[in-house]
Structure formats: C-alpha cells, structure tokens
Design a protein that fits this description.
Layout lengths: L2 H22 L9 H26 L5 H24 L5 H19 L4
Length: about 120
C-alpha cells in the first residue's frame, strides 16, 4: 500500500482527536472564562487544520471526496468516544453503539458501492 492511501488515515485520526479535544476538552474547566476557552479551542483547532488539510489534499489523489468525508466522520465518532471515555468517563451505551454501527454500515455503502 502506498503513502497516498495511508497518510490520510493517520492525519485524519490525529486531526479528529485534536478537534474533539477542542470541542469538548474545555468542559473540564467550567470555571475558566468563556473567552479563554474559546481562544484555547481555536489554538487547538489551528493545529487540527494543519493535519486535516494535508490529509484531504493527499487523500484526494486516491479517495473520492465522499470516501474522505466518510473516513473523517467515522474517525470523528471514534475520537469522540475516546475523548468522552478518557476525559469524562462517559462510555457509550447500547443505543449509541447501535447508532454508531448503523453509521459504520453507511460507510460500507460509500466504500463498497454495492448499489452502483
């Protein structure tokens, strides 16, 4: 497998972990001023974009835009589960697991195109 197939996976994984930290990490600091956590989140998001933009640029050589977006969404949910679990001790319940599995099923259709 060549670099153009693998690089977007690693870059998108890192980007999604960072973005979920930007979106939810500030909740660990409820007493901090809103402007301060917004600036901190923007700072994290800058570095997230430094991963996401090359992931999409490199990935567009070998993946369709629909495939790239699907990878990003699946990784975003995976990163969300990790951040919620590790930072907030919130594990997904049965309904969330079923919902995530349905999304994974949707990803199958995007990548395998069984309907043409």
């Amino acid at each position: 497998m060549n670099w153009n197939f693998l690089a977007p996976l690693g870059l998108l994984a890192g980007s999604n972990i960072m973005m979920n930290l930007a979106w939810y990490g500030h909740l660990k600091f409820p007493n901090k001023a809103l402007w301060a956590v917004v600036l901190a989140s923007w700072g994290i998001a800058f570095f997230e974009y430094c991963l996401a933009v090359p992931a999409n640029r490199i990935g567009s050589r070998v993946y369709s835009l629909a495939e790239l977006k699907t990878m990003q969404e699946v990784m975003s949910l995976t990163a969300f589960v990790l951040v919620a679990w590790l930072l907030f001790d919130q594990r997904p319940g049965p309904s969330q697991i079923v919902g995530f599995l349905l999304i994974a099923g949707g990803a199958f259709f995007v990548f395998k195109s069984p309907l043409g």
